[in-house]
Amino acid sequence: MIHAWGVTDKGVIRNQNQDGYYLDVPSEHLAVGVVCDGMGGAKAGNIASLIAVDTFVDTLKNLRPEQETAPAAALDRAAADANAAVFRRACTDPDCRGMGTTMVAALIVEDTAYLLNIGDSRAYHLDGDGITRLTRDHSVVEDMVARGDITPEQARNHPRKNLITRALGAEEHIRADLYERSLKHGDFLLLCSDGLSNIVTDQEILYEVIHGGESEECCQRLLDIALSRGAPDNVTVVLFQIV
Questions:
Q1: d(C-alpha 236, C-alpha 218), whole Å
Q2: pLDDT given at position 63
Q3: What Å distances lie between residue 3 and 115, 174, 209, 215, CA to CA?
Q4: Three-state SS for 77?
Q5: Which of 189, 198, 195, 227 is closest to 49 using CA atoms?
Q6: What's the CATH code, domain 2-242?
Q7: 3-state SS assignment for residue 24
Q8: Which of 139, 143, 168, 238 is deepest in the core (most CB within 10 A)?
Q9: Distance between CA atoms of 113 and 105, rounded to whole angstroms?
Q10: pLDDT tens digit string along 20-65?
Q11: How far is CA 70 from the centre of its chain?
């Protein structure tokens, strides 16, 4: 069985919430979640994330069982459709020119999580042994860490930490990264925008998920931590629990 919860908030500084998310558990052994963090100005970022989430979900729902689409391929197809929809709007609406959005998505089937990401929204696996980031940010500072130019600790406060190198809707065609993760009883899977991961450390996330209290209140606890620290960006958290 899969339990799931989600929360989103505009944060302390921003006037508008340009994050978007969707969460559904249609059966005991199937769940889907997606988090998008829009960008492109006061108006367009919100539009980008909304279009991306809606198109992504519509594509997944319209993939008929008889098509026998593999979970990873289904995610990739849905992201491609979302990219096309955002890109088309950006090209035809002057107010939306240059807009885009990050995307991190999870499709849980039985005991396997299939994951997709574009940009710097993240997915984490958590259990009694610790926390593991499953996705790799498409960002300037992540590339700098990979080259050994800076440490992960320096990346958290680097002045270029918000510059991403890949965004859904920015180009006609986009490449998403795909991952798989086996899950067992008691495991958690967390999706979030960088409004959380830039403010709350991995170890703090781990503590709140595993030891902080009731699981159904965990997303709100993490949001409250971000808000208490000034939450300069929108914050979105989605949490799955395998029970």
A1: 12
A2: 79
A3: 17, 31, 13, 9
A4: helix
A5: 195
A6: 3.60.40.10
A7: strand
A8: 168
A9: 10
A10: 999 999 999 999 999 999 997 657 999 999 999 999 999 999 875 5
A11: 21
Nearest to 121 by CA among 217, 16, 234: 234
Amino acid 71 reads P
Cα 121 from Cα 54, distance rounded (Å): 17
Who contacts 206 (Cβ-Cβ below 8 Å, separation ≥6)? 126, 130, 131
| Residue labelled with tokens 């009731």 | 214
The answer to whether residues 185 and 243 touch, using CB atoms and an 8 Å cutoff, is yes
Q: How far apart are CA 183 and CA 41, in angstroms?
A: 38
**Radius of gyration for the chain, computed over Cα atoms and rounded to the nearest angstrom:** 17
What pLDDT score does 91 carry?
94
Taking CA atoms, 59 is separated from 64, 88, 214, in Å, by 10, 16, 34
The pLDDT value given to residue 79: 97
Dist CA 38 CA 229 (whole Å): 22
Q: Measure the CA–CA gap between 150 and 39, rounded to whole angstroms.
A: 26
- Residues 68/76, Cβ–Cβ less than 8 Å: no
What token pair was written down for 226? 């971000």
Please determine, for residue 191, whether its predicted confidence score (pLDDT) is greater than 80. Answer: yes
The pTM score is 0.94
Q: Dig out the tokens for 155 from the structure.
A: 């990346």
Write the burial class of residue 13 (CB in 10 Å: 0-12 exposed, 13-18 middle, 19+ buried): exposed
Token match 């700098």: residue? 144
Q: Can you tell me the distance from the alpha carbon of 72 to that of 94, in angstroms, rounded to the nearest whole number?
A: 34
Tokens read off for 152: 């992960």
